[in-house]
Every structure is written in structure tokens, then in C-alpha cells.
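re: that chain from earlier
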Amino acid sequence: MEQLHIDLKDHSYDILIGGGLLQEAGALICSLRPKARAVVLTDDTVLRLYGDSLSQSLAEAGISAAFFSIPSGESSKSMDQLEKLLNFMAAHRLTRSDLLIAFGGGVVGDLGGFAAASYMRGIDFIQIPTTLLAQVDSSVGGKTAVNLDSGKNLAGAFWQPRLVIADTSVLSTLSRREFAGGMAEVIKYGCIFDRDFFAFLENCPDRSALMAYMPYIIRTCCDLKRIVVEEDERDTGHRMMLNFGHTFGHAIETIGSYQRYIHGEAVALGMILAVAYGSLAGVTPGDFADPLARLCRRFGLPVTCDIRPTELVKHMTIDKKADGTTLRLILLSQPGRAFIQTVTLEELTTAMKQLDHIWGN
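^ sequence. v structure.
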């Protein structure tokens, strides 16, 4: 088992990484909070595949748990589901001494974290991420949110988990599309922080090859994120580099009603667009576009987009990093090194219209 410690003073916690940890989850949680009761938030797919395993593990550790399941997919990351979950927690008489366990992918983790931050003005929660995307990124760092009709992640809070348990064995049941979505976040870390890690990914020919190195991959991504979260917990400085590809990506998700492109696919397109824009602006080496596109294609991620560029920029104005006339983009000065650049919406629109090779089908 791999172990990383996130040092945030009173909000510090560990990330545990390894195969078979789901069976140990009850004992691990019990050692942290021996007398707590829990509500387990999950989705219908994870409940069907792994609900019995977690239920048994919790029961063997003497943890009383009630399961609350939501439909799989981004549409469940909503105010409606948040209200239902909070009422479920209240109906089971959870107190501030009890726990919420987020058992699933990024949607479950974001919704569960926000519920934990909101219920009784804050109770502890545990992350048990079951997707590659959640294990390498969204379960770590304390960003929680739900989507509004106006855009993605517009209502939320910073609320750190007490523990993250990443069982790598559950990744074997991910669909091809979900695994690819997680790879977008893995590739992101190589782009913004670690050129050697990007080169390592280039040398992995397929999913099977990656699975042999999965504990290393997850630890590397989480450790890179640990560095920036410890420095900038509230996302006001260096942590913003983690948004590489996301400003474009969130708009792409919203336009497609979270169905046309799942999160990782939208982030991949966002990275492609950010590199293309940086090349046009003369700040990103033009020869990095092809290696990035090849790596995305290898793992089933899109490199062309069927959204009109003007529509994309319009939706980007809703982003939290926009102020009405300008937008902060995360760009690359070179592979493995990112920076923030403020651009006007007019500049961005003009540039996007020039990227004919991306707006194909």
C-alpha cells in the first residue's frame, strides 16, 4: 500500500493507494473514527458492483451505515440531489460526530463533499474514489460543488476529506470511455508539472500496460497535486495551474448538457485548445500539439470538437475565472511548465476561429 500525507494543519489527511483496499475500508475508517455512524453516498453502478463489499467491510468493523444511491452521470450533481441527500442524512439522524462516505467517481465525491460541508455547517467525510479520474484528481484537494443550469461547479465549498482510500483493483471494471476520461487528468499532470511523466505515458502503448503501473501513476498525480494544495488550498495562486484544459472543458460540457462529452473528454479537448491557442499567441511551442494529440488519441480521447467556436467563448464567460471582458487561461510555456495568462474575449474569439483543424468532426 502506498501512502501520501496532505499537510493542511487542522485539515490534514492521508491518501491510501493499493489493490484490495476496499475490503480494508471498514477497519481503516474505524481506526480514524471508531464510534461514528455513516451515510454512504454512491451511484447505482458502483452500488451494484461493489456495494456488498463495502457494506460487509463496514459491518465487520462495527460501523453502522445507510446507503444513499443516485443515478450515474453528471446530471446527478445537482441541487435537487443535494437536497435529497441532506434530507436522507437528517432522516438517519446523523450528528456532527458522524460521517458521510463518498463512494464513487467525481460526481459522487463532489456532491458528497458539498453535502458534508453543508450539513450541520460541516461534518467529516471520507473519499473512496472508484474511477481513475477521481483517484488521480477530484477526490484530493477539497473542492466540492454541484452544477447549476447556468454552468458547471457554480455552487460549492472547499471541504477537505478526512481520508482518501483509492483501491486500484476497482479500475478494472471501468468502461473504455470512463477509463479514457480519467486519462485526460493523468495526461494533464504531465503537461503542467512533469515532462518526464508525460514521456512515461508516451511509452505506454495501451490500457493494459498502464494498469501494471497504476499505483505509481496515481501516487505521482496525487503527489503533484499535494504540492500545490499544500501551498494554495483555496485556489488563488499556483493551484490554478490544475485548471489547464478545464476553462474550455467546462464550457464544452455545459453546451453538450454533460452528455455529448463527459468531463475527461471535455478536458482533453480543452488541453488541445489551450495548446493551440498558446501556439497562436507565440507562448507555447508549436511542436507540442502533435504529441499531445497522439497521446489523447491513443487512449480514446477526442481531439476535434463539433461545437461552434463563438458558442464556446460565449459559455466561457460564465466561468469563475472570467470578469466579463477578460478570462484567465492556463497555458504552457513548455511541456511540464504552466502559467496564467489573461486574454480578452475578443482575442480568444479571433483565435478560436482560426483553429479549423479542431472544429472538424
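The chain has two domains: 2-173, 183-352.
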